[in-house]
């Protein structure tokens, strides 16, 4: 596993569990508002050795309950399933974060039995996916991952990071409709950061909290729960 970052303890990234977070290198998208450019376009940070990570888990049994695998985009890693299965064999729960574009890899991960919770980012309504991600997007892949996640029986969530002037109110309702029947949908207000893939986005803001609260209520026509959440 090509590990580009590691947060040893988190109380908020894995619902109901104390977790450690692994950040993998590489991504298929190039979202302008991404705040992890070092994990996306490189030069990639020095890799953290798997042996170091698993030694940490061995020592933290009974204290750490789960592992969040995020990125970047974890499904670009060829050995993702084997990595997750090794974590599960040690007695830890696994949460997988994904953009959903590599739908075959998402299906493989969900079918492996190694995923206890899955979170997928919804970047835009389908007609704006290529604009937001800055690559030509085959939207059928997005739809296939959504379908697989909702039908998997695995606890899950979808989330969208929202930028004023980029995501319109109608876009948010369209995104909620894409994931009709989902367990949860979180609207995350964009926060500027020192490092972004597109430096011009440092001047961008998020839609107002009041607007998003109103939209969250409207989104609950489509999903079981919709709430505002600070961007990770």
Please, could you describe this protein's structure?
The structure is a single chain. This protein is an alpha/beta fold and 232 residues long. The protein has a single domain, classed as Alpha-Beta Barrel (TIM Barrel). The protein is 31% helix and 20% strand. The chain has helices at 37-40, 50-59, 80-89, 103-111, 129-133, 139-150, 169-178, 209-219, and strands at residues 3-10, 19-24, 66-70, 93-98, 117-121, 156-162, 185-189, 226-230. The two termini are 22 Å apart. The relative contact order is 0.14.
Question: What would a concise description of this structure say?
Answer:
The protein has 232 residues and is α/β, with parallel strands linked by helices. The protein has helices at residues 37-40, 50-59, 80-89, 103-111, 129-133, 139-150, 169-178, 209-219, and strands at residues 3-10, 19-24, 66-70, 93-98, 117-121, 156-162, 185-189, 226-230.
List its salient traits.
232 residues; alpha/beta; TIM Barrel; eight-stranded mixed sheet; globular; 20% strand
What's the SSE blueprint?
Elements: E1 3-10, E2 19-24, H1 37-40, H2 50-59, E3 66-70, H3 80-89, E4 93-98, H4 103-111, E5 117-121, H5 129-133, H6 139-150, E6 156-162, H7 169-178, E7 185-189, H8 209-219, E8 226-230
Parallel strand pairs: 2-3, 3-4, 4-5, 5-6, 6-7, 7-8
Antiparallel strand pairs: 1-2
Helix pairs in contact: 4-6, 7-8
């Amino acid at each position: 596993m090509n590990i580009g970052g590691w947060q040893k303890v988190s109380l908020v990234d894995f619902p109901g569990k104390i977790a450690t977070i692994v950040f993998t290198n590489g991504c298929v998208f190039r979202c302008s508002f991404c705040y992890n450019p070092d994990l996306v376009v490189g030069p990639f940070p020095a890799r953290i050795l798997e042996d170091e990570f698993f030694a940490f888990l061995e020592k933290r049994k009974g204290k750490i309950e789960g592992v969040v695998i995020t990125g970047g985009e974890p499904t670009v890693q060829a050995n993702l399933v084997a990595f997750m299965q090794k974590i599960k064999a040690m007695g830890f729960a696994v949460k997988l974060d994904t953009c959903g574009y590599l739908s075959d890899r998402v299906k493989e991960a969900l079918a492996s039995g190694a995923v206890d919770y899955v979170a997928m980012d919804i970047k835009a309504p389908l007609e704006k996916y290529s604009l937001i991600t800055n690559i030509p997007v085959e939207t059928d892949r997005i739809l296939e991952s959504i379908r697989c996640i909702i039908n998997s029986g695995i606890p899950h969530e979808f989330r969208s990071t929202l930028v004023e002037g980029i995501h319109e109110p109608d876009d948010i309702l369209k995104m909620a409709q894409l994931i009709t029947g989902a367990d949860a949908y979180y609207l995350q207000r964009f926060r500027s950061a020192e490092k972004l893939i597109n430096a011009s986005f440092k001047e961008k803001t998020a839609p107002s909290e009041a607007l998003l609260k109103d939209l969250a209520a409207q989104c609950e026509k489509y999903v079981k729960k919709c709430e505002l959440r600070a961007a990770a």
